[in-house]
Automatic annotation (TrEMBL):
Keyword annotations of the record: ATP-binding, Kinase, Nucleotide-binding, Serine/threonine-protein kinase, Transferase
Organism of provenance: Vigna unguiculata
Full protein name: non-specific serine/threonine protein kinase
Gene3D superfamilies noted in UniProt: Phosphorylase Kinase, domain 1, Transferase(Phosphotransferase) domain 1
EC code(s) of this entry: 2.7.11.1
Reactions this protein catalyses: L-seryl-[protein] + ATP = O-phospho-L-seryl-[protein] + ADP + H(+); L-threonyl-[protein] + ATP = O-phospho-L-threonyl-[protein] + ADP + H(+)
Signal sequence annotation: none
Pfam families: Pkinase
Record domain Protein kinase: where: 5-260
UniProt keyword Kinase present: yes
Family matches, as PANTHER family: SERINE/THREONINE KINASE (PTHR24343), SERINE_THREONINE-PROTEIN KINASE SRK2A-RELATED (PTHR24343:SF376)
């Protein structure tokens, strides 16, 4: 990590990690570096997160750059998105104007659709895991692939992972589920929250009651506020919030929905989508999968020193 210098000590906390803002000493490029303590916290999910993230190269996904070791930590170097979490953008405005919410949603769907076509389900899509790049264009960037899973051969998954407010009913049931359709549900929660300013399934009179929220998700119990949303947005959301995943709107159907297509930028068109799918992602990676796995495996050994320096 000698080629990077510290800029800001803590720009984000995860489940088992801390994220620092650093700068490349030669290029002066700012990067976000996720530090995970070496030892037992480095397990299969960490390796999966890194390998899945490495395979993705899309303008609406935070770029993976490299992994490195310090005496005490495994470091994952990523693109820095200076605009911060979309969550705070929504929180600050209370709710977002429909045209801007649509633009964010269009970018979200572009990134998630690309992940799915690369056979990767995110499984923890939420406003906190989407960043803005800080440019006037407000480019959205999906991050945190810690719960992601390869869904090659359309294998189904059964792990109850994700954030309660955003998870689909089939995840709560504990049965096998299609990770792609569960991601679609989470995208719907994000869209509703951007447009309305509140989470769709929380009890407005008892917001901290997780049990009530889970019950409302299972029953698909939500409502649209009066005279706030357009009929087009309500139609799309109601087709996403369907308990039976086999009857839920698919990613391809979302991309052809009239509300979604309104003012769709060229860079988010299907032509652009196929361009990103067909590019050779591996040529952008400075490290091979073998090199990465060697580093991750070495990080499984406990810290060699108790130094507080990262």
């Amino acid at each position: 990590m000698e080629k990077y210098e510290l800029v800001e000590e803590n720009i984000g906390d995860g489940r088992v990690a801390v994220v620092k803002l650093m700068r490349h000493r030669e290029t002066k490029e700012h990067v976000a570096v996720k530090f995970m303590e070496r030892g037992h916290k480095i397990h299969e999910m960490v390796a999966r997160e890194i390998i899945n993230h490495r395979s993705l190269r899309h303008p609406n996904i935070v770029k993976f750059k490299e992994v490195a070791l310090t005496p005490t930590h495994l470091a994952i170097v990523m693109e820095y998105a200076a605009g911060g979490e979309l969550f705070y953008h929504v929180l600050h405005q209370r709710r977002i104007a429909e045209d801007q919410a649509r633009y964010f949603f269009q970018q979200l769907i572009a990134g998630v659709s690309y992940c799915h076509d690369m056979e990767i389900c995110h499984r923890d899509l939420k406003l906190e895991n989407t960043l803005l790049d800080g440019s006037p264009a407000h480019r959205l960037k999906i991050c945190d692939f810690g719960y992601s899973k390869s869904c090659l051969n359309y294998s189904r998954t059964h792990s109850m992972v994700g954030t309660p407010a955003y998870i689909a009913p089939e995840i709560i049931s504990g049965k096998d589920y299609d990770g792609k359709l569960a991601d679609v549900w989470s995208c719907g929660v994000m869209l509703y929250t951007m447009l309305v300013g509140t989470l769709p399934f929380e009890d407005k009179n008892d917001r901290q009651n997780l049990r009530k929220m889970v019950q409302r998700i299972s029953a698909v119990q939500y409502e649209f506020p009066h005279n706030v949303l357009s009929e087009g947005s309500k139609n799309l959301i109601s087709r996403i919030f369907v308990a039976n995943p086999s009857k839920r709107i698919t990613m391809e159907e979302i991309k052809s929905h009239p509300w979604f297509l309104k003012n769709l930028p060229m860079e988010l068109s299907e032509d652009a989508h196929y361009f990103y799918l067909n590019q050779e992602n591996t040529k952008y990676c400075v490290q091979s999968i073998e090199e990465i796995m060697n580093i991750v495996n070495e990080a499984k050994t406990p810290p060699v020193a108790s130094s507080p320096n990262l």
